[in-house]
Write the structure tokens for this entry.
Amino acid sequence: MTDFLLTDDGDVAEGYRPITDRLTLISQRVRIRLLTALGEWFRDTRVGIPVFDWLAQKPVRPAEIGARLVSEVRAVPGVVTVADVVSVYDRAARTYTFSGDVLTDAGTLKVVFAPLDTGPGNQVIDLILLPFVGV
């Protein structure tokens, strides 16, 4: 099966270019996994992250959310482990942030999942995946 390169907004890149770099492939698969809401995929509504359930939780439980996100990332083929995980809910700002280093068989990625704004009408998720550059 061939994976095609997606743009930042999730569309297939112009020219239907297949992904040839393993780290890019893993990065894209992690991105898709973390940005798919539970019930969103019509072929199997059991697939996805229960974002809207998390938004409805009172109180928000960042440790549980972080553990689920780590589990989802680790399920991607090629991911070895997730390290240096930070899972924080800012009650005053009503935002959730998750970050960590994703160690893969092709290199390391830095994942930043933020913000998850739980304010009325502001349920937005952004995910940043960057190749890890050591200091």
